[in-house]
Amino acid sequence: WKVVENFLPLKRKDQNSGEPTSSGVTWSFAAGSNLSTSTSIKAQKESKKNLNKFYKELRTLKTVNMAGRQFGDEGLFFLAESLAYNKSAEEVDFSGNAITAAGIEAFDGILQINTALKTLNLSGNIIGDEGAKCLSDILIENVGIQKLFLNSTNIGDEGAKAISDLLKKNKTIRIVQLSNNTIEYS
């Protein structure tokens, strides 16, 4: 109820009768029913504004920290394109952004041509084995990335095998972190 109190509209008194009146917003407890269309439109505009800000940041800075911004797969597709044009970013942190295996495909065609990027952090995203395989296929031809952080990404044995195959072919990657995944000893 404390949370609900923060969102309830203020009650105003009718100037004629002195009775409390509602602000015209209808509240219910059904999922998603309390969002008016103007609220959702404002949220969409705010999301686009943030993505544009992140896009500009990604195109100009040497070290880009996008950790925990929760932009997901769609946001990554939008932001990854800026990496193709950025010849100065050496470290990019996309950790904790709800990126899945489908989102990793956003790097296809981007990481193959970007040689300035030295560190890529995707920790805390649930890319799983499929995402690890996709990323491995993309990074085989990359000659820039030296550090790859994939901690807590739900990678299992199949994903670990794909990364091991990548390391046999790509000699520029020097550090790979795979802590807190579901990789078995074998």
Automatic annotation (TrEMBL):
Molecular function as annotated in GO: GTPase activator activity; small GTPase binding
Record-linked SMART domains: LRR_RI
GO biological process, alphabetically ordered: nucleocytoplasmic transport
Entry keyword set: GTPase activation, Leucine-rich repeat, Repeat
Any Pfam family: LRR_6
Superkingdom of the organism of origin: Eukaryota
GO CC annotation: cytosol; nucleus; perinuclear region of cytoplasm
PANTHER family: RAN GTPASE-ACTIVATING PROTEIN 1 (PTHR24113:SF12)
The protein, known as: WPP domain-containing protein
Record organism: Aegilops tauschii subsp. strangulata
